[in-house]
Write a structure and sequence with these properties.
heterotrimer; A alpha/beta (323); B mainly alpha (285); C mainly alpha (316); A: 323 residues; alpha/beta; Rossmann fold; eight-stranded mixed β-sheet; four-stranded antiparallel β-sheet; 11 helices; 12 strands; 31% helix; B: 285 residues; mainly alpha; MetI-like fold; 75% helix
Chain lengths: 323, 285, 316
């Protein structure tokens, strides 16, 4: 195995909120190999977007890292100075945001923004940057890139904006592309097109992609490996086929059972996981999923669950899973 | 608000350097106004023509004016003039706003519509133009000043009270209490006042410097407080007419005006930070 | 859109009429009359009657009101009681001076206010931000006419750099410009603080938006993120507010104009108030209120007409 291009080691992060702190990430470890597509799945509030933001060092001002490191191409990014962290953005790691409607400045043209976004590309003139942007817009499938360059974001359709966002992220050929819910704001047809585009671009450019989504279908179509998150922890990690065919963690099973695409028999109602997410200002001492888990025993409620290695590249955070 | 609540407001105010500075200045000027006859070294109105245009000295710490009156005494009594006008007019406006706002919020629809139109009209008037128009009609003087301030600042208070009243008027517990025969006005006062005290105090304290400025400005134009009553505006005017020969006059008369408006504004800002839960992100709303 | 425009304009007209009616109500309700006030206690009854006639006060009050509105609608604001000149002529003679002063004051205040507000955001939550905040509040609370007097003392009397009074010689732009500097400075000081706070608040709100995060995600330097991506959006509501600012700064120019003895609406109306020149005061108040309402309404309509996307930005 080669060295991972991005690795998160024992990362814990909390948000300071009125009256305490929210422990949004608790001892998270993940790694991404060059060219690999990793999916991060989970319900809203599980910390997956915070993890994505942390990977590009864009957590808010009220976030505080309490432990762990993030390595990008071997460098510990959190120990770098402000200027060095800024230099690596867009070049080593780039991000595609969830809502293409609001991801661009409403008062600047697409062209000038795409040129601005190449600010970490040294020794290239504005003209060349503009040409690169135009070429990349064409590559992501905008039919008239010259026109798109002169448009304001709101003058493009939602699908075009999302393509432009992907183009922006790929402008500097980053080693890792992070996509936070890249298809959530789009309709089904558009979603299929964007997934297709991402797969194509991944094949062309060979960059690693981290896709954060609550949509298991997207992961099944795009990813090599999946990490399932619950209450700020990675509860199961597995190759994508293995996870779908043989989910081991009770939470993963529940999550898959709730995916409408996977319900085979005809029922009148959507299944849902009973209970609620735990209070992250004071996480329970035992397994966070225990109150909602059908298999939970006493030790689940009192002891933190162990990380059980199940097979090559497979692990789960659970008392009840046998290796 | 409980006394413990008050303590934390005062504590928060004192922890904030700006608020503490504002409070100190305000206390200074209020003391000046209250104890003017005891603090002032001389009679502020007594003429002494042989002593005219004396620059600041040990005898007259701030010098004397064109009629030989002691400037420091005039400034100290000027604080009394400025603050009494400001507090009276803002207080009256607050009371009128409370009553009108409750009428608008709780009264019949048509009355509400008329009142809102009147508020809108009043607040879309440029304040100084309005003041000048009223002075032409009524004649200058302390009473006119107070009238102008009340008319101009009532809309803001009335709007605040009206919004609170409307929010409360439909609440279930009010309807229930009314059904049980309690008087609407009493219920409203009891439930609404605790909610509006904070914003109202902030609004009032922010308006006091505006009134001080208006009083000084109009008195400067000889359209406010009538001489010989000492007013910072009158002193500034006297100083302005002898700017070249006695520049110390405007210098010493401008200072209390700047410091008092600064003090009240800082205090208002500090109060807002201490009282407004939305800005501090804690407490309930 | 048309319905909104009609509604907005109708509201402005109603407010204007309400204001003038209120003025008349006051004249009618207040004991004594403007003519006696103007002439003082020693005036003869004949003189009072003459002045009352000139002020139009001898007619029944409702007739006065009707007469006033009818002539005001045709641009006739009555005649100066003392000089018999038409009031509108005087207003139109002095108004450009006041307008120039207001625009100059707002212009420099806007420039510096935006710069200070943006600086505070670039350095947010630092000592510099805090100091700028205190400075802004301080500037807001300093009375403009005190600044004016101090400015005359320092720059005109002591340093002799700039003229103390007047609006410069007619036909000599340089002298007019020199005469504009101190009044515009004094009038704008408070607005610098106000605008700095406004820009800071508006900018901080914009800085929480997604497109700012995008700009940061591509490693744009913070200053560039604030100035190019934040300020461009944050400035729109500020500019819209400038219309209201212009409307109110022209009225508050009264004190500054008087201190600098600068011909303008302020000196016109204060002179008229001091001489109880009733028609001039009423006409000027009507004119300034109408101008203010016109500007505010026009700004509102213009904003509503703008591109819907920009409208969304404005509504925040």
């Amino acid at each position: 195995m080669t060295d991972p291009v991005l690795s998160v080691e024992n990362l814990s992060l909390r948000y300071r909120v009125p009256g305490g702190s929210l422990q949004v990430l608790r001892d998270v470890s993940l790694s991404v190999q060059p060219g690999e597509v990793l999916g991060i799945a989970g319900e809203s509030g599980c910390g997956k977007s915070t993890l994505a933001a942390a990977m590009i060092d864009l957590t808010g001002a009220n976030a505080e890292r309490t432990a762990g490191t993030i390595r990008l191409s071997g460098r510990d990014i959190l120990s770098l100075g402000q200027a060095d962290r800024r230099r690596m953005r867009g070049r080593d790691v780039a991000m595609v945001f969830q809502d293409p409607m609001t991801a661009f400045s409403p008062v600047l043209t697409m062209g000038s923004q795409l040129v601005d976004f190449q600010c970490n590309l040294d020794g290239v003139s504005r003209r060349e940057k503009s040409d690169r942007a135009r070429a990349m817009l064409a590559r992501v499938g905008l039919s008239d890139p010259d026109l798109a360059m002169t448009r304001f974001p709101h003058e493009l359709s939602g699908g075009m904006r999302q393509r432009a966002a992907i183009a922006a992220a790929l402008l500097m050929r980053p080693a890792v592309l992070i996509a936070d819910e890249p298809t959530t704001a789009l309709d089904v047809t558009m979603e299929a097109q964007i997934i297709h585009l991402l797969r194509e671009l991944q094949a062309d450019y060979g960059c690693a992609i981290v896709i954060v989504t609550h949509h298991l279908g997207v992961i099944a179509e795009l990813c090599d490996r999946v990490a399932v998150m619950y209450a700020g922890q990675v509860v199961e990690e597995a190759p994508v086929d293995a996870l779908y065919h043989d989910p081991r963690h009770p939470y993963t099973r529940a999550l898959l059972a709730c995916d409408p695409a996977r319900i085979e028999e005809h029922t009148g109602r959507l299944p849902a996981i009973g209970g609620r997410l735990p209070d992250l200002t004071a996480p329970p001492p035992g397994c966070a999923f225990a109150p909602r888990c059908p298999l939970a025993s006493d030790r689940c409620r009192t002891l933190p669950p162990p990380r059980v290695t199940i097979g090559p590249g497979r692990a789960a955070l659970c008392h009840e899973v046998a290796p | 608000m409980s006394s413990a609540g008050r303590k934390t407001v005062l504590g928060a105010l004192l922890r904030d350097p700006m608020g503490a500075f504002g409070l100190a200045l305000v206390v200074l000027f209020v003391a000046m106004a209250l104890f003017a006859p005891w603090i002032a070294p001389a009679d502020p109105i007594k003429l002494n023509v042989t002593q005219k245009f004396q620059p600041p000295s040990l005898d007259h710490l701030a010098g004397t004016d064109q009629l030989g009156r002691d400037l420091l005494s005039r400034i100290i009594f000027g604080a009394r003039t400025a603050l009494s006008i400001a507090v009276t007019s803002v207080g009256m406006a607050g009371l009128a706003g409370l009553i009108l706002g409750m009428i608008a919020g709780f009264g019949p629809r048509w009355l509400d519509a008329i009142l809102v139109l009147v508020f809108d009209s009043l607040s879309s008037l440029p304040m100084i133009m309005f003041a000048l128009a009223v002075i032409t009609v009524v004649g200058p003087g302390t009473g006119t000043l107070i009238l102008v301030v009340v008319l101009v600042s009532v809309p803001a208070y009335a709007r605040l009270i009206r919004a609170q009243t409307l929010a409360l008027a439909g609440a279930d517990f009010i309807v229930a209490e009314r059904a049980m025969g309690a008087s609407g006005t009493r219920i409203l006062l009891r439930h609404m006042l605790p909610n509006v005290v904070g914003p109202l105090v902030i609004l009032l304290s922010m308006d006091i410097p505006v009134v001080i400025m208006l009083e000084a400005g109009l008195s400067y134009l000889n359209l406010g407080v009538r001489p010989p009553t000492p007013s910072w505006g009158n002193i500034l005017y006297d100083g302005y007419t002898s700017l070249r020969s006695a520049p110390y006059m405007v210098l010493v008369a401008g200072l209390p005006l700047v410091l008092s408006t600064l003090g009240f504004t800082f205090l208002g800002e500090g109060l807002r930070d201490a009282l407004d839960p939305r800005l501090k992100g804690r407490g309930h709303r | 859109m048309l319905r909104y425009a009609v509604k907005r304009i109708a509201l402005a007209v109603v407010i204007l009429i309400t204001v003038m009616l209120a003025m008349y109500a006051m004249v009618f309700l207040v004991p004594g009359d403007p003519a006696s006030l103007a002439l003082g206690p020693r005036a003869t009854p004949e003189l009072k009657a003459l002045l009352r006639e000139r002020m139009g006060l001898d007619e029944p009050v409702l007739w006065q009101v009707w007469h006033f509105f009818r002539s005001a609608a045709t641009g006739d604001l009555g005649y100066d009681v003392w000089s018999k000149r038409p009031v509108l002529d005087q207003i139109l003679e002095f108004f450009p001076n006041t307008l120039i002063l207001g625009v100059a004051a707002l212009g420099w205040a806007l420039t510096l206010g935006i710069a200070l507000g943006a600086t505070a955001v670039v350095w947010r939550d630092t000592v510099a931000d805090r100091l700028l905040g205190i400075l802004s509040v301080g500037l807001i609370s300093v009375p403009a006419f005190v600044v004016a007097i101090y400015a005359i003392l320092i720059f005109a009397v002591w340093l002799r750099w700039l003229p103390a009074i007047g609006a410069g010689n007619p036909g000599d732009p340089l002298s007019q410009l020199r005469a504009l500097v101190l009044p515009a400075f004094a009038l704008g000081v408070g607005w610098v603080g106000y605008l700095a706070r406004l820009v800071r608040a508006s900018l901080l709100e914009v800085m929480g938006e997604n497109h700012i995060r995008t700009a940061r995600a591509f490693g744009l330097p913070e200053s560039r993120v604030v100035l190019r991506y934040g300020l461009r959006v944050a400035i729109i509501p500020t500019i819209a507010l400038m219309a209201v600012g212009l409307g109110s700064i022209l009225s508050s120019a009264v004190f500054v104009e008087t201190v600098f003895g600068r011909p303008g609406i302020g000196t016109l109306i204060t002179g008229a108030v001091q001489k109880r020149n009733y028609p001039v005061v009423m006409g000027t108040v009507l004119f300034m209120t109408a101008f203010y309402l016109f500007i505010v309404t026009a700004a509102d309509l213009l904003i509503a007409r703008l591109d819907p996307r920009v409208r969304d930005v404005l509504r925040r």
